[in-house]
Amino acid sequence: MLKLNTTYIKSFVSDDEMANIWPRMEQAYDQIMHGTGKGSELLGWRDWPETYDKKEFARIKRAAQKIRSSSGVLITIGIGGSYLGARAVVELLGDYNATEALFVGKDLSETAYRRAMRKMGDRDWSINIISKSGTTLEPSLAFDVFREKLIERYGRAGAKQRIYATTDAETGILHDVAKREGYAMFTIPDDIGGRYSVLTAVGLLPLAAAGVDIDGLMSGAREAKKHCAPEAMTYAAIRNILYKKGFSVESLAYFEPSFGQMSKWWQQLLGESEGKNQRGILPDSMIFTTDLHSLGQFIQGGPRGQLFETFLHIGQMLNEKITLPGSADLGLDYLAGKNLASINQIAYQATIAAHGKDGVPAMSINIPKLGSREIGYFIYFMEMSAALSAYVMGVNPFDQPDVEAYKKEMQNLLQPGTGK
Ligand code: PA5
To answer: What is the pTM of this model?
Structure first.
């Protein structure tokens, strides 16, 4: 379902280098499959497409149905791993006629709050608050503000019926409040970390409310669990070989703007899994052809030896095509009768060739078409790739010890003396 094209990598990564790193890749795969590597207590995502709680899955669908019939908007509150995946998939597969997911609590911006309130307008709405710890400042503040608004609109009893809390099954402030108030509750499994959690209730509830086919997502992820290892190992091997040669920035290049949020999810997954102990590849992203008119010069003519590209290539986005008039007065007659999507495909072929031939290692992840199964497959493939790649880099893929630093500084400024 997903294929890695390495044509333009061959001049940067030799067969011998691949053969040399392969035993290490097999070892990393073995660590994941047998739970013998660092952070193995957070390997729940590995079997999740098969082992997920079917009863909770059915509850998610029922809750989504209730949200869709009662609310034009779902205020979806969360940050990092408790937000990026849902937003990415909504942007790719969300149904414009379903409940609109508006994401808040992912920053501390008053403008963003105001914009969400304005966008909501007079429509009926509900809240999905998503936080594993239940104590993260950004979502807690957003929940505080939007819950008050919900109570203003629907009264205390009415608001309770419109709040869905996705959090730890046993502990945490959010868990305790939700239990006490009687909000509908959904679980973030203990053994799945934030950035690996999009296929749990974290992502599935807002996605189902937004009209995404969550059965399709899970079925694609299940397929990936069976089949993606060879491609994931190859992708992770190439990244590590390039990294050892000094290539320290990877840019995910995509030709469909609706992959913008998916590239943010990917950035967190790879960046937070690898970037520790002074190691890691910086995950960057670019939207083409747009950025070819801004960063294209830098890529083609800037320094060599730092940047490599991973192209995301989608075989088919939509069924309906836009046929080009090909007006002669605009000098476009040679394109008459062609469709826009085919020109975008040619732009992809031309760009990977131009960059690849000119000293920028470039590989491509080919997804046959945009659909829920394909995206479920892609998500699992990337989770497996991130874990493999981090193990080969010698770091724990599942922790993020250094994100606490800014939180402590902030806590000390907000409540002097309390940040430890
Ligand atoms: O990947 C992670 O672990 C982080 O991005 C967290 O998901 C993020 O900080 C939000 O945490 P929480 O769900 O506890 O509010």
So the answer is: 0.96
